[in-house]
Structures are given as C-alpha cells and as structure tokens.
C-alpha cells in the first residue's frame, strides 16, 4: 500500500495463520507452529480488534449496500487509515474487504470496497450488482465502460454508488455507477467506471478464530515484548542519577496506560499512579480509573482541574485541533502542581506509542519533559502496535474502559476537538445531556462571533485554520468561515515584567491572530532565538536560549522568563516576532539572503537549520513582518520592565 510510514523502520504488515484463522504479530504461530501469510497494512499500520459497536456498524453497511453480511461473528481487524474522519480498513480472515469510513458531508458511515471484498460478495450479493460482457484480454481496472456492455443491473443502483461488477463466476470486481439503474444500459454513454477487476475468487476460512485463539497464537511473542518493556523500565530507573527517584505511572484510563500500569508493577517494587481529571472526562472513564487502580492494587492520586475550562472559555472560545488551549489550563497546570511535590525529580511511566500518529514517530525510550521540571518520561511500549496492546490486555485478563466496546478508538475528554466527528456523534448517543449542554454553549458562542449555526453543526469549530477537507465542505454548504465581528490582531499583556517566585523575571501575554502558522512552521522560525521543543499531548512549545526560556501555549499565551528584566522583555518580544514571521510570512526570501550562516532556505515555507543558526538576528532584522511589528500589532504600554 502506498503512503508515508509513521517512522523509518515502521512495520507495514502483520501475518495471518490460516490454520488457526487468527492474526499474528510475528511470522510464526505460537499455537500450531505454522508460518503466517503476510497481510499488508496501510500506514500507520496501527491495527486493532473490531469492537462490538463497530461490528454492528460494518455489518449494517454490508447488508444495506449488498444484501449480504460476510462477517457474521468472525474475528475482524480494523486498521486506521488517513481520511477526512474515522476511516478503517476492514480485515477478515486476512483479507482486506474494504474501508469503512464516516462521511462528514452526509454525517453517516459508508463503505468503500476493495477487490477481495468484491470477489467475496459477488456470489452472495442481492443488491448493487451488474453483470457485464467484456473481453477478458482487455485491461479494465481504472477504465470506463459503456452501457452496451451491461447485461443485467440491480434496480436499486444510484449514481455514484460503489457497485459489484460480475463478468462470470471467476472474474469480477467493483466500480462506480455513473448513472442510475434505469439509464445504466444506455449504449451511448459511459455508465460505469471500473475501479478494480480481476480473476480468481475469495473464500473465507471454515474455522472461526476467537480472541482467545489469537492470544494463544501470539502468547510467546507478547510475553517477550512484555519482558522487553520491563527491562526498559528497570534500566532507566537504575541509571546513575535516576536511582532512588520516585516512580509514577500516568494513568489516563486508556488501553495503553492500562498495559503500562500492569508492566510497571512488574518492573518496580514501589510506584504510584496519577490521573488528571480535566473536568471533561467521560463518566465511564472516571469510574474505570479508580476501579482499575483498586483492582490492580496500585495507589492512585487524582488531580482535578475543577472549573478551569468554564472559567477560560469566555476568553478563548472553543478549543480546536490547532488551538488546544485547554491542554495548558486543564492538563499541564494540574500535572505541574501534582509533580511539584517531588523535589528531587520523578520518573513517569507513560503509554505513548510511535504508531499512534506520524508526529509521534520519533519518540525515544525516555526523555526529560521540558514542560514539567524534574520529570523523566519513560515510554516502554513505544514500539507496540494497538493489536499488541490488546493482545496483552486479553492475555493478562485486564479490565478495560467500557468505552472501547462502545465504539471509541481513543479515550480522551468528551468534548475534545482532536476526537473524530464520528466519535462525537457517538458521544451524543451515550450522553445526550452532556452533548446538549456543549452544543448549546457552541451555538451561543457562534452567534456572538457572527457565525452561522451550520458552522457548529458541521464541526467547523474544531479548527482555527481549516484544512482543505473542511474548506470544501464549507464551500459546498455555503457556510461562512469568517466571523462578522473580525477580531484582527492584538497582543494583550496579562502580567508585565515582574519578579518570579523561583528567581529572575518573567512576562506573560496573549497574542491574537486571524491565523496561526502550523506547529512545524513555528518550530522552524523559533530556531532563530533558541532550541524549540513541542509537546503533542499538551500542544505547548518550549524554547530554551542562553537568555532564558519561552513557552507558547495553544491559546496564544506567550510566557518568557530570564535572569533580568531587560532580557525577559526582549526575549518576549523576539518570540512574538517569530510567531508573526511564521504566521504572516510573505515568502519574499529576504531572510534567506540576509543569513550569514546559510542556515535558512525557502521551500514552500521557511526552513531553519538549527545546527547552523547562531541566533544573530539578521533574518529578523531583514524581515518585513518583524520590522513592522509595532504597526501590525499595537505594542502594549506595560511590556517594558519597570
């Protein structure tokens, strides 16, 4: 399958034991000794077992579209693939039958077939099928055929339907109907676009594999992976200055942190779990966290954000995928408070994995958390895939969050903008009271901002800078994206330069822009004033420089600290200038030419080589945006040190 891997050595396949009829995470079956058949996965390759709720959705798609359900109670894998929203390859008996996806425009699930799925369906389907007459020596995949080649057609076919195309008992595939059934035989028109067609047939295995069979077939491999994860924890905990540091486990109530909690118990004698209640947790998650910790006999500390979200919503509006101010207020703040009691430092075992997203592909086994002083984060299952996590959970018979069985792939806050729209719809079904409360708040916010109700209805509030998929929906539905009440640009100082309790001086403000550069663009530009680091979980950028440190939060907050007043003020203004440069860049190329160290290049957007940059500031001096900083944004009077 084509596509970018989440990291260089990422696996793009699993195996399938045809004897036991179960997936394998390594080539050899631990139950029967057979060598598995390779099954290619689209990236990032984070396959998982299908939940009961997802099974109901997928069975319904097959039955409503083709009149036949090939899945039944068989073991089904879902492999997350890139898409506008929720999209998963459906894998049964080692065959990829299609992609089940949530259509944002029509707000419903749909099914896109693959060749194996079409061949499996053709002998049994009663809907959306045509029989055609074509010479077998003609290559048809990707081509259109005229209505004169259509011999028979199901009466239920509508234009743009994904239809089954049958030539004979051993040759068939699928395509797109370009006409309704009544016109699909029109000899003068191209009425079907063939997507994929070929010879051969697909037959499912007579044996019905189960989760228990899958655990048995992978037991030795998963046990070996558990041992490796235990050794990672032991090695880091016993290293030099780490010896004697308290060990904690970040327990979110999700599957990955559950697996890590069980592994950590085996690696260290004394540990403590902690859970941050953001105030927007699912009730199921809050119950599960405390029940699981009690069942597993692990002490747990719950740190609560209280009403922090409600108190900050009037200032920032709804959080968005590219504007997650809530992470600072409701997660980073409580974590910092909680871990500040460990004066010497603390080791935190975390369930972060590389296969979760492309951005996480580069994580190491451990790292110092630049956003929480003294915290060393350890990622013992960083190389595990979702299927391996689930095999481990089932192998150890661990209780897990019930939301997974109810259709959630990811467990987070119930209003999280980073969640899928499909899961947001599911939240409405499970918790209509929470949904109605949040929707009401969003509609009132939209009205106050001069936006239409459709802006909320189609989930456009989830972005500040809308991606193409949402821009297309907005155009099709004629939804205005710009508020009638234009906010423009502004820099508001929350606290002028003043002494810090920890020593030195700091300044904090909020920068408001009509659009912000992507995270990668900000990181590139901030290389010119220091060494930036980004936390995907918290949506925070930290910049370290000889002059001090800068933190940029998702809500537009910028915080700078230094050893003296003047440095703190200058560092703050420099950070604001770099954000402006990244967000308002005209791609004029002046900075490229003005850099004496040849550290800058222009390729779509500005790229800064941090190894070559000596932070001389020449690029900023030559930048039109930075030069007219005071005209673009009215400089607050209280920015200067007193």
Automatic annotation (TrEMBL):
Residues 576-605 form the 4Fe-4S ferredoxin-type domain. GO terms for molecular function: phosphoadenylyl-sulfate reductase (thioredoxin) activity. Keywords: Oxidoreductase. It holds the Pfam family Fer4_7. The keyword Oxidoreductase applies. InterPro entries: 4Fe4S_Fe-S-bd, 4Fe4S_Fe_S_CS, PAPS_reduct_dom, Rossmann-like_a/b/a_fold, Sulfate_adenylyltrnsfr_sub2. It is an enzyme of class 1 (oxidoreductase). Its EC number is 1.8.4.8. PANTHER family: PHOSPHOADENOSINE PHOSPHOSULFATE REDUCTASE, SULFATE ADENYLYLTRANSFERASE SUBUNIT 2. This is 3''-phosphoadenosine 5''-phosphosulfate sulfotransferase (PAPS reductase). It comes from Methanocella conradii (strain DSM 24694 / JCM 17849 / CGMCC 1.5162 / HZ254).
